[in-house]
Structure to design on (985 residues):
């Protein structure tokens, strides 16, 4: 028990007054000869026992009354399990800091966050009427609180409206905000009430503890720690990482998901059930053995029903924190691509055929492409709408009607690949297909054949590695691309036609474009300024050729979106590069996620507040981009608790006994004492009037 | 009619003066009474014999029995009155101007005046110190002074023994007499009053003046008080306020019982507060008795 005004306890000495009066105020009774003493004696005999009892009761009531009043004035508060902290005498401005990080969603019969709300209400009720208070909801995107005030209803409403987040909580930052808010109060007493589970993820002990500026001095405020975990450990296993990718080696539309789980409890979990969901349906199951504090990795595979962007999730058996036992993902399942390969320079010798290497690359195992090979004349009789991509390999300029159909095909959403060769005559091409070409063709440049010493063959110089076309070429894989040597290549006109854009995805070391990309209507056109056989370069026999051909076909068909690898995190933003305007981004719960356009045409989406699959849509509600997944920060799933001694060292030995220690909360008793004093007074008066 | 209050009487020194003043006050009251001059009292019936006065014929008896009876009267001069004064220690209590004993002696003295003035025989029996002192009834004028002197000398002392007084009077009064008792009747013996009232069964005309102090009737004490007995060594320290209600109940019950016993025994009972006008007390008493005679 503690007292707000302990010096008023001196008043309890007044409770000795009845005893003192009884002992020392022995006034001599006045002797009075009385004739009717027989009646006096008889009356006394009749009433003696009753009077003795009445006197005893009066004495007791008066003592209690004189004890209760000064006790009540001293404002006693009962300390009961629930919180620890230092105490300041007198009123103190108070900031309630409620942790609403992911870990507070931990549930053991009752969720930690529900308990935190109850604790916050209790802490609010325990405040003295003269103590101002404000609230900090400590989670992602925490804002500076209002100055402590006396509008308890507003704070109570704010507590009622609190919701746990899926992100982390920076308790240090929140305590600093709270300390700043305390400086706005003129009261000398400063108090920070922290309601949290005190996990290692939420509190950085290397940061300095909060301090409040009072006058010219920095002082440590009174710290009250309310441990909602009641000193108990919070065992948790969670998904650390999920990697989903197509697995063509396992079969068409096969998806392989590799996930890593971690156990942060001291208990081992021999067989933790894990399930793989695709498009909302469980498709595979397995078990994980998780040692205490250990991690385990497992792969599950399944066949997707359709190609394209597919949503899925890995789900572990739920534990106290079920939210981190599920992790969503989006995987691009290769779709079957119908590619019309127009061979501009067929040859009886296969390897001399213009389309030999290109067709071989498209038909390699695991490739989603289904090529159809035609010569130039036969190709123009094909119905282009039956194909996703048309590849014009060293093709002479198409006749006008074919050129018009090609233009219509591309603008309707088809993909067009154009590679150069001896059959390509720049002026005719510019005339016939100038509208489709990313840039007009100019002339063929010879850089020197392989083996020649006078001219050095060209190599790729600048490459847009971040473009989806080149994303697989990371680190050493780039060698295969950069090592390709080009003896000839088509130069293109510098500059662009007005209103049309073309991106140079790769350029030779002399700066001449090697790969140009343009969007024409709904379709895409990729111009490769060299050949896909060995006539002008050895690129066709380089290791980079096969993946680049496959990816370019997929990209031109629109099945290889640049956001296929996009993955967001809670509390963070994500940059997307939409090619058509995005009207809104829908969250997993159906809400709208804010986004802002950037100068480079991309949009910055977020910050994200819930995990799951987000879907960018256009004004009509149709998908404009592949959906993307937002996942939890695995660090927030580590619910290892800060040790009491570490907390004591952080907040001071005298300030905190530790969140796992004998936590106490304050319950005001003075109102009860005043009520009791009033009752004593009433009974005393009644007893006095009783004969 | 301005009556003599106790405070005025208290200013008068001695029983003789007080008694006389009270007696004169009584006589003054009697002059205004329509029944003044009644000096004879019916004694018995006698069968008519020639020579008896016809005016004394009792026509009601004749109507009842069909025989002639004449009423015979006894003059007051034939009255023998014994005034019994309780001079025990408790009678010495006073909270006002007069003690109970002073009131008792004043009343007894005034009554003596009246009796002797009517040439009735008046005697005195005093209970004091556990013993008795008696002055036999006489009607001589000089006897009055002896009575008054005896009353004058009374001092309160000793216990109250009403039952002993009853026995003593029964022995001392072989003939029919009027017995007037002045006492507070504070006797611890349970049947003391009954014994006294038994005198009525012996054809004595008994009247009781119970003299009580207002403080004994109202118990106006508040502070812690050490009550001391006036007749023995009993004492009690008590907060008077706490027992007042109980005391008043006890006293009320005692008075009610006394009154009931007296009524039952056909004894005149008069409660006398020491603060009330004594001539009024006597007037009331006499009026009551005259009313009974009619």
């Amino acid at each position: 028990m503690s007292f707000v005004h302990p010096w008023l306890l001196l008043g309890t000495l007044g409770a000795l007054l009845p005893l003192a009066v009884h002992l020392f105020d022995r006034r001599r009774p006045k002797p009075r000869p009385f004739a009717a003493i027989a009646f006096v004696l008889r009356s006394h005999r009749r009433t003696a026992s009753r009077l003795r009892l009445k006197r005893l009761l009066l004495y007791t009531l008066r003592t209690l009354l004189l004890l209760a009043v000064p006790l009540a004035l001293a404002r006693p508060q009962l300390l009961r399990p629930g919180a620890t902290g230092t105490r300041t005498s007198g009123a103190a401005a108070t900031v309630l800091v409620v942790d609403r990080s992911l870990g507070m969603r931990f549930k053991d019969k009752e969720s930690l966050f529900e308990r935190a709300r109850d604790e916050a209400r209790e802490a609010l009720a325990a405040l003295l009427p003269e103590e101002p208070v404000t609230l900090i909801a400590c989670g992602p995107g925490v804002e500076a609180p209002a100055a402590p005030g006396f509008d308890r209803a507003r704070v109570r409403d704010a507590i009622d409206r609190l919701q746990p987040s899926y992100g982390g909580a920076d308790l240090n930052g929140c305590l600093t905000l709270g300390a700043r808010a305390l400086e706005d109060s003129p009261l000398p007493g400063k108090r920070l009430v922290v309601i949290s589970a005190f996990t290692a993820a939420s509190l950085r002990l290397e940061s300095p503890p909060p301090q409040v500026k009072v006058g010219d001095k920095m002082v440590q405020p009174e710290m009250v720690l309310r441990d909602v975990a009641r000193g108990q450990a919070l065992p948790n296993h969670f998904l650390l990482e999920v990697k989903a990718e197509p697995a063509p080696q396992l079969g068409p539309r096969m998806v392989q998901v590799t996930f890593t789980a971690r156990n942060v409890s001291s208990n081992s979990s021999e067989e933790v059930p894990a399930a793989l969901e695709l498009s909302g349906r469980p498709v595979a199951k397995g078990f994980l053995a998780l040692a205490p504090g250990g991690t385990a990795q497992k792969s599950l595979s399944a066949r997707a029903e359709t190609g394209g962007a597919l949503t899925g999730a890995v789900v572990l058996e739920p534990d106290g924190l079920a939210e981190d036992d599920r992790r969503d993902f989006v995987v691009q399942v290769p779709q079957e691509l119908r590619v019309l390969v127009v061979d501009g320079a067929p040859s009886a010798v296969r390897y001399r055929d213009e389309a030999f290497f290109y067709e071989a690359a498209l038909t390699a195992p695991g490739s989603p492409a289904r090529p159809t090979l035609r010569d130039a004349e036969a190709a123009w009789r094909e119905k282009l709408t039956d194909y996703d991509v048309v590849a014009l390999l060293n093709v002479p300029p198409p006749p006008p009607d074919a050129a018009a159909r090609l233009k219509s095909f591309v603008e309707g959403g088809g993909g067009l690949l154009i590679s150069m060769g001896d059959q390509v005559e720049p002026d005719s091409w510019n005339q016939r297909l100038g509208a489709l070409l990313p840039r007009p063709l100019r002339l063929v440049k010879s850089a020197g054949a392989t083996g020649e010493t006078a001219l050095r063959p060209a190599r790729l110089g600048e490459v847009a590695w971040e473009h989806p076309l080149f994303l697989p070429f990371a680190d050493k894989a780039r060698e295969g691309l950069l090592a390709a040597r080009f003896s000839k290549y088509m130069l293109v006109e510098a500059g662009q036609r007005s209103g049309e854009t073309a991106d140079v995805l790769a350029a030779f070391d002399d700066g001449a474009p090697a790969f140009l990309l343009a969007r024409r209507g709904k379709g895409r056109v990729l111009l490769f300024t060299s050949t896909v056989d060995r006539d002008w370069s050895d690129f066709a026999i380089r290791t980079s050729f096969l993946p680049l051909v496959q990816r370019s076909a997929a990209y031109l068909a629109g099945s290889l979106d640049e956001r296929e690898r996009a993955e967001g995190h809670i509390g963070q933003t994500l940059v997307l590069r939409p090619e058509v305007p995005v009207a809104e981004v829908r969250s997993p719960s159906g809400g709208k996620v804010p986004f802002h356009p950037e100068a480079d045409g991309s949009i910055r989406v977020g910050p994200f507040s819930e995990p799951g699959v987000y879907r960018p849509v256009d004004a009509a509600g149709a998908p404009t981009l592949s959906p993307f997944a937002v996942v939890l920060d695995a660090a927030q799933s580590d619910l290892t608790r800060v040790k009491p001694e570490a907390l004591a060292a952080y907040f001071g030995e005298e300030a905190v006994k530790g969140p796992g220690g004998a936590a106490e909360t304050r319950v005001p008793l003075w109102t009860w004492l005043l009520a009791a004093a009033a009752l004593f007074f009433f009974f005393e008066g009644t007893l006095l009037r009783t004969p | 009619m301005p009556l003599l209050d106790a405070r005025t009487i208290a200013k008068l020194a001695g029983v003789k003066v007080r008694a006389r003043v009270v007696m004169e006050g009584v006589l003054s009251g009697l002059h205004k009474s329509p029944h003044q001059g009644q000096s004879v009292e019916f004694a018995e019936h006698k069968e008519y014999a020639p020579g008896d006065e016809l005016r004394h014929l009792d026509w009601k008896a004749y109507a009842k029995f069909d025989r002639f009876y004449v009423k015979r009267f006894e003059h007051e001069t034939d009255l023998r009155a014994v005034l019994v004064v309780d001079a025990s220690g408790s009678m010495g209590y006073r909270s006002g101007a007069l003690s109970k004993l002073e009131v008792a002696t004043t009343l007894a003295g005034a009554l003596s005046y009246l009796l002797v003035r009517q040439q009735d025989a008046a005697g005195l029996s005093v209970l004091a110190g556990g013993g008795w002192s008696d002055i036999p009834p006489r009607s001589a004028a000089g006897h009055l002074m002896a009575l008054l002197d005896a009353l004058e000398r009374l001092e309160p002392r000793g216990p109250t023994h009403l039952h002993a007084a009853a026995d003593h009077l029964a022995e001392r009064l072989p003939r029919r007499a009027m017995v007037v008792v002045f006492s507070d009747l504070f006797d611890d013996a349970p049947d003391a009053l009954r014994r006294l009232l038994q005198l009525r069964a012996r054809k004595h005309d008994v009247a009781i003046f119970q003299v009580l102090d207002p403080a004994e009737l109202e118990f106006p004490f508040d502070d812690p008080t050490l009550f001391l007995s006036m007749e023995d060594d009993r004492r009690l320290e008590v907060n008077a306020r706490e027992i007042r209600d109980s005391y008043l109940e006890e006293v009320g019950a005692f008075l009610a019982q006394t009154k009931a016993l007296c009524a039952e025994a056909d004894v005149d009972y008069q409660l006398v507060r020491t603060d009330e006008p004594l001539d009024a007390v006597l007037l009331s008493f006499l009026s009551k008795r005259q009313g009974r005679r009619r």
